[in-house]
Amino acid sequence: MSPPCMIASFFTQSLFIIAQINDPSTPSIEPINSHHQQRQAVIATATEEINQLTCQFMAKLNERSTAMANGGNFDRALRDVAVMQAIDPTSFLGYLKAGDIYQQQGRQQDAAAMYEKGLVHVSSSDYRYTNLQMRQKDALDAANKRVDFISQLPLELVVSEILPWVINYLYRLAVDTPCPYLYVSRTWRQRILLCNNLSFHADGVTNSDVFQFRELERFAEHVKTLLVEAGRSNLHEGPLSVFDDCDFPNLTHVTICYNGYEEDDLMSALESVRRTMTHLVLYMEGHTEEDNDDDYGTSRIHLGGVLDLCPGLVSLELMSFTIHHLTVQHTTLTQLTLSTVIFPLSYDAMINILSHLPSLVYFDLHHVPDLRFLTRLHVYCPGMKLLKCGGCDSFDEDIYDRHVQGLQKLRLGIDDVDEQFNADDLVPLLLENRQSIDHIRVTGRLIGESVVRDYKSLGSSLTFDRLKKLEVHAANDQLATLALSIIHRSPNLCHVRLGSHAANRDTIWNALRGLSNFQTLSTRKMTMDSISFRNILEHQVELGKDSLLKELQVGMGADVSTFSWMDMIGGLQNVTKVALLTTTIETPSAYLSTNATIAEGCPSLLRLELYFGRQPAPEGTITLMKDHPTLQCLRIHASSIAERDVVNLLSFTKLNNVIIIIAPIQDYLIALLRARIPHMKYIPY
């Protein structure tokens, strides 16, 4: 427990005892002799001194919270105020100061609520009770003031800058619920509708309500984005009928969950907006590989059918059971995300798709297809910039440089799935795009050693000058060898993530040590104690303030005590994020020792992530970090966390973000954490 909390608890208990002593209803004890009289005198004197100390402590907390708030440190100021209210819940001072801090932040409603709380707890006979009433009235008046910026600012500024941001990011429009912004005044409505940028969301509505689409119908001509995220079921027909009921002259972005719809219904809906629609997402929910197309009534929903119906599409994301060969070229489509439920795509299917979509820039396949198409990629799609084969998540940054020719981002494979790639397909693609590619991520195993051997013998003349990020999870030595060759030829490499065989190769760690722009290092499933890995950390420690290393993530497949380099982490001067992932802790003391080096070192650390999987966090793990001067975010994934550690989270001085996963935490502690820590997230699964 933090010192302020301990003091608050002490004074609260003391005040309770004092109240009991001074309560007229408490039976008095007649003094029997002089010794009793002396004790009564000591009690009275001590009580008076405690009251004086309480007043002094309250005054100092008030003084400190004022200084903190004036300096903009509102969170810490409010913590002091919370202690004041805990010490003396009937004192006006804690509520007055809290309300004042809220008002400094412009949080008038919160201030009014705090003054109201004070009026409940402070005696009406207190002469400062009136002061609380007046401050509450001022806060409510301030909260009710409105500045009509929409009407007063220049029309061009409102339409081009303010309204698109408000409507797109702050408010999702429902098809059956009025949007308050549209009903403030006629001027507001006119200006908002000038954007033609409304985004509506239809989810779970039923045809039994005649007014279910009233808002959408009223403003249909100004809708730009429509999400229909409720498929047809036995309970209702679904909201797809809205396409028949409304005309959408400005609709460009459409998302439809097409579970249960007949092809004719879906195609009719798309037909109605095909002239304006440029971005389309068609997906199913709850499907499995055991399902078949007849279960969904949409057996003929396929790539060719959608593109033939909507030739103006620029972006398409399609989940489908079937793939039919394309017969017509579609030159406007630049982004395609494709998920086939049952089987990966064959070489012929891939060539057919690429040859009929020559303008593709972004191609995302959720399953890994036959990769022989890689050698023909730029023959059919010369403008391809991003290619992903495997996995549902996309690149960290789906951005590319339009002025750079060639592939810029490549991802092959799925995490924890042992996909197999042929070097004859992969290596030529890498060499062809060595002057353009900036991000490579490959997971699986490589076959075809001859090409890799030839690649290694090319010398240093062929370099990947734009490569910034390399992620390799190698299931065999051949892929790890390819990773080593790429590192040797990538002078500007900044971010490296290695797993399995690649994470246990000393030659790779030795190569990484020579990088001059090294900023992020992530390893996964390290099972060997590596002297070369220690040398990397030692080198970064020796660089001191000149080190560029900002993030370190280490995944260990063995007990912490077997890795001799753990003590080096604390010496990293500029690292802002450290993540330790382990599922094997045979010696908790070794883990705590590592934590102690981080707590006493890493002077720039802002974020710490500790992953224990399905095992408990060693007791003391969190407590060790409480005095770290810069730590702001703590993420813990464990089967359990000692209560003492959880309580100690309340005493962290800089902490403003906590994420706890799986570990059971008592409700009252979660409430305390959420009251004290601005961003507290608890995921109990």
From TrEMBL:
Entries under SUPFAM superfamilies matching the protein: RNI-like, TPR-like
Database matches in Gene3D superfamilies: Ribonuclease Inhibitor (3.80.10.10), Tetratricopeptide repeat domain (1.25.40.10)
Protein name: Uncharacterized protein
